[in-house]
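Troubleshooting: if your tokenizer reports a length mismatch, compare your output against this known-good record of 215 residues.
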Amino acid sequence: MPDLELFIGNKNYSSWSFRPWLALRQNDIPFRETLVPFEFDNGNPAFKTFSPTVKVPVLKDGDLTVWETLAIIEYIAEIYPCAGLLPADRSARARVRAASAEMHSSFSAMRSAFPMNFHRPAGALAVSASVQKDIDRVVGLWSDCLETSGGPFLFGGFTMADAMYAPVVSRFATYEATSDPVATAYLEKMRTLPAWKEWEKAALDETWIIEAEEV
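Known-good structure output:
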């Protein structure tokens, strides 16, 4: 059996940590959680003891170290194929990977303007044209996926794509980024997941503050 240990950062702020954690917990996949907080604005020197990039998240499976969120979730999908993180259908699997890769590589304006922050009271911010472009693309992508699949998740069942977009769901809710009814329904569905609520409660219980992430 796999011996999984997931190293993560602060639950309030670490959007990249949230993704593989949610993929594991949503599917009741056993793992050990090791939280090493961001004690400095740019991370924590202690990350170098387990992370080749001095960043989180990192997954360890025995002697194997997997870094980078997308690779971690792909690995989880391979060792637990019954979880459905990647669909059995080849075409659907390709679309899940494309949507996930777009999240991994894109939306930098939105991510910079809207740090993930469960503590922040909900409230809209004025946004630049580049941020609005990112928001519109995410809403369009979600709408296309949900219309094609029939929902309730982007590709029907919960997949890697939903895990990858989970921090965007949090951001959209916190910063009231869209009133689109399809996107709003998806936000509500994601935020009712027991695994989501578990992460959110832990995030709200944290007392660490990173000023650079407070907007």
